Each structure stands twice: as C-alpha cells, then as structure tokens.
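Pilot study result, target chain (214 residues):
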Amino acid sequence: MPNLHTIHISHSPTSPREIRDIVIAYVVLTCAFAFIFSGGIWNKQFHSSFLTLLPIAALAVALSFILHELMHKFVAQHYGAWAEFRTWPAGLMVTIVSSMLGFLIGLPGATYIFSNSFTRRQNGIVSLAGPATNLVVFFAFVAIGLVVGTSGPSYLVLAIGVVMFISLWLGFFNMLPIPPLDGSKVLAWDWRVYLAVMVPTILLLAGLFLGLPL
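Predicted structure:
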C-alpha cells in the first residue's frame, strides 16, 4: 500500500536503502508464510514442512507482495513523484512472531510516496496499481493451472494454488475502504472503478473458499 509522506528525497529512482528494505521484507514475509503453511511451531512436522514449503512461499511473496509494492512505486514515478519502499521494524517483528504462532499479522512495510502535485485521480491510479497487479498474477496462474491440470505434479499444483490465493487475498485486503489502505484512495477517486475491481475480487475469493471451479 502506498503512503504519502514528506521525507528525504534521493535523486536516484532506487536507493541502496530501498533495495535493502525490499530484501528484508521479502525474506521475513517468505519465512512468515512458510511458518503459516507449516502450521506454526506447534506442528510436530514443522521442520520438514517448513523446508518443503519455503520455495512456494518465496514464489508467492515475490509475485504477490513484491510486485504489488513495485507497481505502486513505478506508477508513482511515472507521475513524477518520489517513491520508495520502506520496512517497518516493529511490523517485521509482529509479522514473524505471529506467523510462528500459527497466524499472520503482515506488517512488513509500505511504499512511501512524496509529491507536491498529485491529483485525486493520480493518487487513485497509483493506489489501484498494486491490487490490479494482484489480479493479473491471479489470472495468470489460473491460466497456468488450466494448462497443468489437477493431475499435474502435486507440488506444482500446490504452488499454483498458493500463489492464486495469496495474490487474490492481498488484493482484496488492500482494496478494503479503510485508510491508509489502497481501497480508501481508489474509492475517494472513483466509486465506479472501486466497485469494478472490488466486486469481482470478492466473488473470486468466495469461489476459492468454496472450492468452485474458476
């Protein structure tokens, strides 16, 4: 999710600090999802499950979270704004500890944006870029799943399903109309665009939960 703040502006579109923060958030979230998939540290089979599921978590986080944040950044820069990802140290701790206990409160950080000239429309489009990317990833993996089929390698089928679910869930969560989430800014820009994205997202997510064919 993008946050508008007045902070020090670097002349480089990507700073060493941003690269460091993205890597840290990526590693923490990957481990957190692997903890969740493994049932937390209370699961007797935790160690073997964690190592088995870690690559799937890494793929899901890269395509669902990292791309989400980078699209906020790239679209903001397209409009002439300064934009960089920053971690939240306390949030990183909450993320990893909660996942080890078997549930996830994901607060690794956000894309911070500074602009003196953003219109409401531009802010809405920048905010929409992340959830829209999640939908693109979701449908891409729906297509991959159709090619692979349910009879494909079980590990690959599992990976496809996990990426689909996490991408869609992240898109849904960020589209909630609650500040500072993306949905609040999209809704403030155009309620028709908001509904055009949020309604299908809810229906697709409900379909996944109910096990309906997509």
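One observation from the pilot: Residues 4-11 have pLDDT under 50 and may be disordered. A full batch analysis is planned for the follow-on phase.
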